TrEMBL record:
Native species: Carex littledalei
Source species, domain of life: Eukaryota
InterPro entries named among the record's database cross-references: MCP_dom_sf, MCP_transmembrane, Mitochondrial_Carrier
Subcellular compartments: Mitochondrion membrane
Name of the featured protein: Mitochondrial carnitine/acylcarnitine carrier-like protein
Ranges occupied by Solcar repeats: 2-93, 102-214, 224-311
Membrane topology listed for this record: Multi-pass membrane protein
Origin organism lineage: Eukaryota, Viridiplantae, Streptophyta, Embryophyta, Tracheophyta
Keywords: Membrane, Mitochondrion, Repeat, Transmembrane, Transmembrane helix, Transport
Keyword RNA-binding found: no
Record GO biological process: mitochondrial L-ornithine transmembrane transport
The keyword Secreted belongs to this UniProt entry's keyword annotation: no
Length: 313
């Protein structure tokens, strides 16, 4: 029970540190992922990450970079408590006897199990976050095309779904519960969320332990300094996104898709349509901000986790 309390507390502190450091990068990532494909011959709304930052600051101010933070902040305790506690309990199950370090393969298994568990918390939280982060992208996108059809002329308007102007996280939740299928609507995108969290956390925790052991020169990593822990955490976080980024793009576009007139009918369909219309690079929209975010955010998370846990003695 003592280990559970340690993991609950340390995971909460680590998650808060990660969110505060990394959320502005995440906002830019989601904006780039969710911006609609421009009409032929027209440039996209954002030419890249730096342009997205500039436009966000110009139109929404610094607060725009923290849009959607309420939902993950409100649930960061539960999310990281589950992640680190499930991982800790799986470590206890796999450990041959108390105090014996686990192998890297065993850490990978523990990370995968923890990733599966947190998927059920991550999905509704990120749906709310992505709706808030991306709603401004759909507000101004409308393209009108016209051309001859037979003897007459037909005009068609190609417009993004009319956005719901959400006032905050609770407003998003109320809208989804009322108009998008009840509680089931909050779990839109669960499959790609699992496809991200399970392998992503498996790799992340495996890389984290591998780097710690390398820096410590053996299996006893208890004497590592804060700089080493930050380095291991930052590289581990980067490995997460290197492996699963395309699934995160699929998750984001599904979660912000219009409920009444959906563009995608599932994860595979979304993957194929992105690939067909934008090529491979479409599956890596926002990759730069995600990678830039992952190093400092996960450095802060793992350092806060380790320091908090060690403070219990």
């Amino acid at each position: 029970m003592g280990d559970v309390v340690k993991d609950l507390t340390a995971g909460t502190v680590g998650g808060a540190a990660q969110l505060i450091v990394g959320h502005p990068f995440d906002t830019i990532k989601v904006k780039l992922q969710s911006q609609p494909v421009p009409p032929p011959g027209q440039p996209p709304k954002y030419s890249g990450a730096i342009d997205a930052v500039k436009q966000t600051l110009a139109t929404e101010g610094p607060r725009g970079l923290y849009k959607g933070m309420g939902a993950p902040l409100a649930t960061v305790a539960a999310f990281n408590a589950v992640l680190f506690t499930v991982r800790g309990q799986m470590e206890a199950l796999l450990r041959s006897e108390p105090g014996v370090p686990l192998t890297v393969n065993q850490q990978v298994v523990c990370g995968a199990g923890a990733g599966l568990a947190v998927s059920f918390l991550a999905c509704p939280t990120e749906l709310i976050k992505c709706r808030l982060q991306a709603q401004s992208e759909f507000a101004s996108v409308a393209a009108t095309t016209s051309g001859p059809t037979g003897a007459g002329t037909a005009t068609a308007t190609m417009a993004a779904p009319a956005p719901v102007k959400y006032s905050g996280p609770m407003d998003v939740a109320r809208h989804v519960l009322k108009s998008e299928g009840g509680a089931r609507g909050l779990f839109k995108g669960l499959v790609p969320t699992m496809a991200r969290e399970v392998p992503g956390n498996a790799i992340m925790f495996g890389v984290y332990e591998t780097i710690k052991k390398y820096l410590a020169g053996g299996s006893d990593t208890s004497s590592l300094g804060r700089g080493s822990l930050m380095l291991a955490g930052g590289l581990a976080g980067g490995s997460f996104w290197m492996i699963v980024y395309p699934t995160d793009v699929v998750k984001s576009v599904i979660q912000v898709d219009d409920y009444k007139n959906p563009k995608y009918n599932g994860s595979i369909n979304a993957f194929r349509k992105i690939l067909a219309s934008e090529g491979v690079k479409g599956l890596y929209k926002g990759f730069g901000p995600a990678m830039v975010r992952s190093v400092p955010a996960n450095s802060a998370c793992f350092l806060a986790y380790e320091v908090t846990r060690s403070s219990f003695g």
